[in-house]
C-alpha cells in the first residue's frame, strides 16, 4: 500500500517542527528513502540509570498515518526493552483504536521516554537492576557504532540487520558515529569487545555499580531507621550507666 498524500504531508510538517523545536533528550528524522521509516535517538536523562546513554530506535508508520499508530522498536540494548522488538504501548500499533490522530512524532517519542524511565511492564519490555541499566548505558555508544562488535550479516529484523556491524546506525547518524569513535578512542575501548584496552574492564564496570548499589542500600536503610538507631544507642547507654552505678 502506497504512502498517502496526507501521511507524507503530515510527516514532512512534523519533521520541520522537530527540527525547530526538538523535545528534550530526543532527536529524530525520517529515512531519506522512506518517509514512513523514522530513526530516533534518546539521550538518557539525568537522575535515571540511563543517564548519558545513547538509545537508537525506529518508528515505522503505516501509510494511513495519522489515523493509525507506528510500530515502535528500540535497537540499542537498554535493560528496559527487548532489542529490535515491537513494543506494546498505547501509542504503538498494538493499540490502533486508542490512537489519537492529534498525536505527533514528538508526542509518541515523549511517551516512549516516559514509559522507559518508569517501571511498568508490557510486551517487549524486560526486567533488570538499576546497576545493570547503568552498565548498558555505558556501552550504548560502542554498541551503536559497532553493532555490538558484530560483523556477520543476518536477516533483517525491524529494518535493522542484526549483526550488521553498526552499518544502519552509521548510515542514519553519521555525526553521532564520529562522536562515538572519538569517545571510544579517548576511553581506549576495543571496538571488537567494548572492553577497555588499558584495564581490560568492560565499559561501565558492573563491579563499581554493585559497590555503589550496596552503598545506596546501606545509606537508605540508615536514613529510614535513624530514630531506631538513636533509640538503641540511648537504651544501651542508660543500661551501661546503671550497671556501672550498681557496682
Automatic annotation (TrEMBL):
Listed InterPro entries: Ub_conjugating_enzyme (IPR050113), UBC (IPR000608), UBQ-conjugating_enzyme/RWD (IPR016135)
Stretches that traverse the bilayer: 227-244
PROSITE patterns assigned to the protein according to its UniProt record, in alphabetical order: UBC_2
GO biological process: inner nuclear membrane-associated protein degradation pathway
Span of domain UBC core: 6-161
Keywords for the protein's UniProt record, in alphabetical order: Ligase, Membrane, Transmembrane, Transmembrane helix, Ubl conjugation pathway
EC class (word): ligase
Record-listed E.C. numbers: 6.3.2.19
Gene Ontology MF terms: ligase activity
Xref: PANTHER family: UBIQUITIN-CONJUGATING ENZYME E2
Record protein name field: Ubiquitin-conjugating enzyme E2 6
Organism for this UniProt entry: Ceratocystis fimbriata f. sp. platani
Amino acid at each position: 500500500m502506497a504512502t498517502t498524500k496526507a501521511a507524507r504531508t503530515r510527516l514532512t510538517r512534523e519533521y520541520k517542527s522537530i527540527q525547530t523545536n526538538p523535545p528534550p533528550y530526543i532527536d529524530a528524522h525520517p529515512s531519506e528513502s522512506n518517509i514512513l521509516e523514522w530513526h530516533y535517538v534518546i539521550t538518557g536523562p539525568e537522575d535515571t540509570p540511563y543517564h548519558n546513554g545513547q538509545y537508537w530506535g525506529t518508528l515505522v508508520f503505516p501509510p494511513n498515518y495519522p489515523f493509525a499508530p507506528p510500530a515502535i522498536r528500540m535497537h540499542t540494548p537498554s535493560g528496559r526493552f527487548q532489542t529490535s522488538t515491537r513494543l506494546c504501548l498505547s501509542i504503538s500499533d498494538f493499540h490502533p483504536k486508542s490512537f489519537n490522530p492529534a498525536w505527533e512524532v514528538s508526542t509518541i517519542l515523549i511517551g516512549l521516554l516516559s514509559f522507559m524511565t518508569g517501571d511498568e511492564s508490557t510486551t517487549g519490555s524486560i526486567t533488570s537492576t538499576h546497576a545493570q541499566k547503568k552498565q548498558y548505558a555505558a556501552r550504548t555508544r560502542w554498541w551503536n557504532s559497532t553493532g555490538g562488535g558484530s560483523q556477520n550479516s543476518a536477516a533483517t529484523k525491524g529494518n535493522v540487520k542484526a549483526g550488521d556491524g553498526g552499518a544502519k546506525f552509521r548510515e542514519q547518524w553519521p555525526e553521532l558515529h564520529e562522536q562515538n569513535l572519538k569517545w571510544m578512542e579517548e576511553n581506549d575501548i576495543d571496538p571488537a569487545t567494548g572492553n577497555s584496552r588499558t584495564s581490560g574492564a568492560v565499559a561501565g564496570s558492573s563491579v563499581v555499580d554493585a559497590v555503589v548499589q550496596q552503598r545506596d542500600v546501606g545509606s537508605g536503610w540508615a536514613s529510614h531507621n535513624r530514630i531506631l538507631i538513636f533509640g538503641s544507642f540511648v537504651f544501651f547507654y542508660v543500661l551501661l550507666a546503671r550497671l556501672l552505678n550498681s557496682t
